DNA sequence: AGCACGCCGACT
DNA sequence: GTCGGCGTGCTC
């Protein structure tokens, strides 16, 4: 008898052993996809992890029900890659598999029931049927093939299970498991109103839910969400994320007939029929860069290409892609976010036409499945352009991996698990496939730059902007000074105000950049502008108003707010929290003529609104665009002559050891928006903390200087790239139990890891959906065995979970957190 | 993930 | 007492 260990694509830790029916022996292979029943008669697509002949003890195995053929199997190297990911990021294989297989391929069946074909009305075989049983039969007669939940709904009661069960046993009804074909337009689950409710009705329902607090909360949140987003339905996955993830509450609301989970068909993807054009000729510098990249690839797998904005990195990529596919090999081109880089898709398609496949989260499930199948088949796209999840597609003979904007934090997946880094995973994918890897950025991550400087990666630079585009003029303006002189116009220094006026008078455009601050607030001296930092970690401390204390997000230390400024001894600390809405109001006040628009998260989340706004601005129907981070990326506007950074201090003062690195990047990106062809643009950067070293380093304009200056500190404090970090997050409903558990864990870990253990420290958002969170950070210096370390950590966490303080405790790992 | 089981608090 | 909500554990 043969057995197969199967990975079920759920967040479960273990493998599950199934028996291989004799007719499938030889067909079932490691990496293959199989259909198995798991819990009751629910079916899942699983991945074969191993085949063996050791009968498991302690439970009966169930048979594999079906083997999925037709080119859906994972290759050995694909499976190996997924298992590496699971191991490295301390994520259960099931979780990784769930991320790797498009939803449409993770079929799960809905157990449906119907009347047995051979059953006849009068042929009760002498057995008396109960009233309930007869009612159930009636329902089936009317509705044909339906599932349990529907029987319950139609009969408006929940105790039908016994009757259905009994009917099943008598053979009057039968289970009909329909396993859908993998290609059939797959269905998406949608949460929506069961019917239309009036406000009055909703009020009554909310009142009636007094005893069901979770349901009440969920319903209220849902009503608010619908109002805000002008919608009345939401895919279930999103619903779980945005509204709440209590399945019990959702179920309750469905049973009450308030909401329903409907199954909706989703459509397929389109293809481009664009004319293929010649590649652009490279400039001298680009040609030289390309030559250097080729040279490095002869000896090394990875090359870092650092190119200032508009230096034409993409053109270099295009030439490398062309060479690679000419050799019959595949290319993976990774981007941090597809939405803002439509231009790249266009450029690639202009040269490579239909040889470019695009893969991103905006695609429908079936489209993703189709892409997956195509890549696994005879005629895969030679070039895949996509976001981080593209690493999960099958690759035949990968020759080149390009990771554009490799420093972008959005490469790191946070929720849902697995928490992997798209860049690092892609590097590993490339290595496992013997491909070359090209990392590109204007402001590389310290990790990659360190690798380049140490000689592990090849390093190539592009230092001049392409064409007649000049670098903009940077002006740092001291807000503090004008504030003292009472010369501020709201949030505008006279310098920024005058520059804006000048640009607007010429009919040109302005972008104002206001950093989105997340939840944390920091304290700044109202006299000298100094920002309060932690004494041990060199990150700004987070201010908690209700406790009036300062908390270090990294080492966990707490301290009261000093009454006078520790730097100048004169001013006192004030809370800083600006916002884009206020800036908009001020603009309207000071520039009543100007046409203003705000681009924030709301606009960003709506594709139609976003595109409309960009078009308006491009067409010159808007004069001023106010935005957060997003305006710093990918958007090129001809007529923008001025970029104003409202409050650069908020970039620098994030409670994070990477804050300065990110601030540097953002200032560079923002500057890149100003002044395109011919004319030099201006960037006005308003700062209070004028002495901050980041500004000095930005002014000097040398990335290398910036890196060498800050990397010494990173090394001293044992931060990446000189150490690896593993973050352990504990969650619990009870704050005290959580603290106890965290302290116990930290103590256990310290027994062996000693000073490598930091914390427990409270995260910025200390409570999420009723769960308190706390984090323990492990710093592993170079040379320490990561796999041994992870085993040790996991072992200690398991001990904790099994012990007294493990009740109700949840443990999450984040390897290489950002 | 989703289902059964069991605890606990409200209500006849 | 009993009913129903909500947290916990398990699934081959």
TrEMBL record:
What quaternary structure, including any partners, is listed in this protein's UniProt entry?
A: Component of the replication restart primosome.
Q: Which PANTHER family match?
A: PRIMOSOMAL PROTEIN N
Q: Where does Zn(2+) 2 bind?
A: 534, 537, 552, 555
The residues forming a coiled coil are none
The residues covered by the Helicase ATP-binding domain are: 294-462
Please state the Enzyme Commission number of this protein. Answer: 5.6.2.4
Which positions make up the signal peptide? none
Which keywords appear in this protein's UniProt record, sorted alphabetically? ATP-binding, DNA replication, DNA-binding, Helicase, Hydrolase, Isomerase, Metal-binding, Nucleotide-binding, Primosome, Zinc
Q: Which organism is it from?
A: Butyricimonas hominis
The superkingdom of the source organism is Bacteria
The protein, known as = Replication restart protein PriA
Kindly give the SMART domains that the UniProt entry links to this protein. DEXDc, HELICc
Cross-referenced NCBIfam families: priA
What the entry lists under HAMAP family is as follows:
PriA (MF_00983)
What protein family is recorded? Answer: Belongs to the helicase family. PriA subfamily.
Iron is among the record's keywords:
no
List of residues binding Zn(2+) 1? 525, 528, 565, 568
The cofactor(s) it depends on are: Zn(2+)
> Function of this protein?
Initiates the restart of stalled replication forks, which reloads the replicative helicase on sites other than the origin of replication. Recognizes and binds to abandoned replication forks and remodels them to uncover a helicase loading site. Promotes assembly of the primosome at these replication forks.
Stored InterPro entries? DEAD/DEAH_box_helicase_dom, Helicase_ATP-bd, Helicase_C-like, P-loop_NTPase, PriA, PriA_3primeBD, PriA_3primeBD_sf, PriA_C
Give the reactions, separated by semicolons, that this protein catalyses: Couples ATP hydrolysis with the unwinding of duplex DNA by translocating in the 3'-5' direction; ATP + H2O = ADP + phosphate + H(+)
Q: Residues in domain Helicase C-terminal?
A: 560-717
Co-factor note (free text)? Binds 2 zinc ions per subunit.
